[in-house]
Amino acid sequence: MKLRNALLTAAWLVCLHHEAFADNTYILATGRRDPRMYAIDLKEALKPQNNNTPNAIVSRSKTALNRLDGKLLGDPANVVISEDGKTAYVVNHHGAIDNDEFLQHGGRGNIAVMDVKKMTQRRNDNTAAALELHIDSGHFGAVGLVLLHDMFVIGNAESHLTEDGGNRITFVDRKTGSLRGQVELALGNPGFACPDFPVPFVSPHGPPSPVPLLSPNPGWGCFPDSNGITLGTASNGKRYLFTANGGTDDVSVIDLAAALAGDKTAEIARIPTQIGPWGIVTSPDGRVVVAANRESQQVAFEGNTISFIDVDLAASAAPNAEVARVLVGTSDPSAQTRPFIPSFTPDGKFVIVPNFRSNNVSIVDVSLALAHQPGAEVARIPLTRPADTDGVVRPARPKGSAVTADGRFAVISGGPRTTFVPSGTVWIIDLHSRTVVATVTGVGNDPYGVAIVERDD
Q1: Would you tell me which of 34, 68, 133, 312 could form a disulfide with 421, CB atoms 3.0–4.6 Å apart?
Q2: Residues forming beta bridges with residue 253, ordered by sequence position
Q3: 321: left (phi over 0), alpha (psi -120 to 50) or beta
Q4: Rounded CA gap, 434 and 246, in Å?
């Protein structure tokens, strides 16, 4: 009897812990073409009665003030949470633009600084109450974001009003928004003449021209057009930035100390990958970087692998710095799966990979991958969407990923771009059972980045 009571008590405590965890845990999803941040109550999302509904959405926060004619502005593509969990830094890829009008690339990026507590309060739904200020990204087509103690490090993927032509990593003061410096990445070697554009830039000199306006275009390959950015730490404690270069099909390695000393050419190496990488993430110990090989910018062809990069080898510019490459989303090496934004589990043992084209999520065992063992993709979870408001069942098209602090759940954002809003989706995957346990509908339109926060009330 005593043993039974003890077991019941233990079970009750486990449930109590889970409830306490879920009560103040929220998913923040970028609405992208619907320029609002969506706050989703994790506990509510996990309730069966809320599955395949938008019921768990608590609030939608504007990432810019409305235009004078009432149009919603903003282009939230990425989100990073401050060290204390109180602030969300939302990267507006093209700044405060109207997505219905701005149908190209190369808008001036900005960071919307937003109050997490206000973002997760129902009374602030569909308002800009959580928005504190905008900080200019220092260049065009901002995507990747790394937080240093006093600065933002921003990957800028584009040039002015063009999708190609980006080679700037900017350093911006977190308090004042001042542009403190830039790293100018070297041009690629595509096998044809590149535009006259010196690195580092020398004035007077015009912008890079001609460059392709939109991808895919065979003229790509001169500019790295960096998407995601992450920070790795070598075994000697020295830190390096890694950028996913969609334009040159590689990953840049940047000496952070040199960059912070004002060296504009602090890029020390390029690591070739399968094809244009987009999402990039570092293991919890800082020693391994994973890049998702998304697509070519030159031709209409998408990747199907993730690359594992050893930080120590990359720091020495070793040609074998890519220590593993794992097929994801398919068992057919010729199939295109378009892996997007990967995430590590908190223990560093697994990588979660949303595969846009194959409409599934891969779970990759890191130890198996690094040992070049077969079967490193230990799970492949299909994703589906319920019918949209027009009655059409569209493909899942997953993009963003995040993992809860306890490693229990993976959160995936996705859904194709539509002509109506809201139409995006967030899936919650139980990493113990490796199954989808909840689906939240009506989350933005073409959502990208997601984050998980625990609100301190």
Answers
A1: 34
A2: 242, 269
A3: alpha
A4: 30
What pLDDT, on the 0 to 100 scale, is given for residue 22?
54
85 lies in a domain?
A: no
The 8-class DSSP code of residue 417 comes to: -
Element counts in the chain: helices (H) and strands (E): 6, 27
Task: Look at the chain and report how many structural domains it folds into.
Answer: 1
What one-letter code names the amino acid at 164?
Answer: D
Residues 6+ apart with CB under 8 A from 423: 34, 388, 389, 415, 442, 444, 445
Task: Give strand ranges (E) for 21-130.
Answer: 25-30, 36-41, 57-62, 76-81, 87-92, 108-115
Burial (CB count within 10 angstroms: exposed 0-12, middle 13-18, buried 19+), residue 349: middle
Range of the domain at 269: 91-104+140-190+212-447
Give ∠ CA 229-448-338 in degrees, rounded to 5. 80
Kindly report the CA angle at 108 between 107 and 110, in degrees rounded to 5? 125
Q: How far is CA 28 from each of CA 41, 79, 166, 202, 445, rounded to the nearest angstrom? A: 9, 8, 28, 41, 14
Residue type, 227: N
DSSP code string of 116-146 = HHHHT-GGGTTBSTTEEEEEEEEEEEEEEEE
pLDDT on residue 15: 41
Mean pLDDT by 10 residues, the chain (457 residues): 38 40 85 97 98 98 98 98 98 96 96 98 98 98 98 98 97 98 97 95 92 96 98 98 98 98 98 98 98 98 98 98 98 98 98 98 98 97 94 97 97 96 96 98 97 88
For residue 52, is it within any domain?
Answer: no
In a domain, residue 17? The reply is no
Token couple for 274? 């399968």
Please report, for the domain that includes residue 273, its CATH number: 2.130.10.10
- Residue 318 maps to a domain: yes
318 token code pair: 């070793």
Task: Please identify which residue in the block is written with the tokens 């070598």.
Answer: 234
The sign of the dihedral angle between the CA atoms of 393, 435, 227, 290 is negative
Pairing verdict, β 57-62 and 76-81: unpaired
Which pLDDT does position 66 carry in this prediction?
Answer: 98
